[in-house]
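Below is how a single chain appears once it has passed through the pipeline. First comes the sequence as given, then the structure the pipeline wrote out for it. We keep one example in the README because the format questions we get most often are answered faster by looking than by reading.
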Amino acid sequence: MLDRRSALSLARPYASPVLQIGEARGFSLLQVAGPAKTISPITGKLPAKVGTVLQADGRTLMRTGENQFWIIGPENDGIAAKLNGIAILTPLSHSRTRIVIEGAPTRDVLGKSIPLDFHPTVFKPGMFAMTGIHHTPVLVHCTNEHRFEIYALRTFALSVYDWLTDAALEFAG
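Resulting structure:
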């Protein structure tokens, strides 16, 4: 079987004593549309409001719209087969790259170009936002106080990564 080639295969690695930026591979991403009451018997409890995240059975569940969810799971997750015929499914795994930025200055780096308030009392762990980096659509997920995952369209992933590493140059040490 062929391996999926990373959209960041040409990217220069970035690491400093206080900040790391890289790609998180080996995940599945499924967009699910339908009423929560028909989806939840399969997935379990779903996030109550847009912008919030729940963790369940090794999956990350995000409510991205009134009746729309992202399910992020292991690379060979079988949840799509269980939801087939119950909801509208759009596999997004091959169209997104997950970029991880981690370290104490993470919020400062992201705040340079993303139009969100990254103060820890506002953008807390377990929250996400659909936004943009220089007109490039991304989903930004706060996984803990100093760690964010950024889901970028594969075609723009290298540009987003390069922007992040440029914005982080002051922390290169």
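The domain at 27-93 is CATH 3.30.70.1520 (Alpha-Beta Plaits).

See the next section for the split statistics.
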